[in-house]
Amino acid sequence: MRYRPELDLVLKGLSFSARGGEKIGIVGRTGAGKSSITYALMRLVEPANGQIRIDGVDISTIGYRDLRSRIAIIPQDPALFRGTIRDNLDPANEYTDDEVWAAIRAGQISNLLDTPTEKYVKPLDGKNSDKGLWIEGVGLNKWVKHNGINFSVGQKQLISLCRALLWRRKIVILDEATANVDSKTDQIMQGVIRREFKECTVLTIAHRLGTVMESDRILVMDHGQMAEFNTPEKLLADRNSHFSQLVESMNFSHSN
Prior knowledge:
Elements: E1 23-27, H1 34-41, E2 53-54, E3 57-58, H2 64-68, E4 71-74, E5 83-84, H3 85-89, H4 97-106, E6 143-144, H5 153-167, E7 171-175, H6 183-196, E8 201-205, E9 217-222, E10 225-230, H7 232-237, H8 242-255
Parallel strand pairs: 1-8, 1-9, 4-7, 7-8
Antiparallel strand pairs: 2-3, 5-6, 9-10
Helix pairs in contact: 4-5, 5-6
């Protein structure tokens, strides 16, 4: 795969398979091609050659909506839009309030919805703005400002996680999802993912190597190619493996 016809390939000869329900960690240094796998899976960039098959179906033969409606992605920068929490979790209004609340409880953000976003302040110019009486709503009616600016990065990630819980897709991609959150939020997210996504195939593109140590297998990327693909235990047992060297370099940088 390449991003433009005149550019070099960012994925080269990459071939691997994931079993249904398997948890795959994807690691590698900056520019190794980790996030390019997400672009390829979502068909944000079409492949220059080769195929991606899901349950035997070549994804290039189906529509974008059919493909993307079956994959949940939790990106590094979660997307929230102006509206209520319910609007953000269920924009197509496909689920009942009970189902939405079940996802909220599973994602551990119930306490986040207990208080209003802010008190009503009438705009001095009288023009439309984010402010209004409805902002005092709580629960499913709690208001989300444009780009979710009234929530912290960690809170936005948890809301994004609840969206994935509600949609119950069979494939979940975590693209550096915990790179910008604090360690407490990271722990909450990892716990929810372990409990709630047991039946899902989860691809975790990792910034913090600790987030993939419990994966079934780890795919190590290097210059757009697969360098290694094995269990964490087997990769760590080889002191010369790419993965062991990544872990050692991380530990060294943290100690300094």
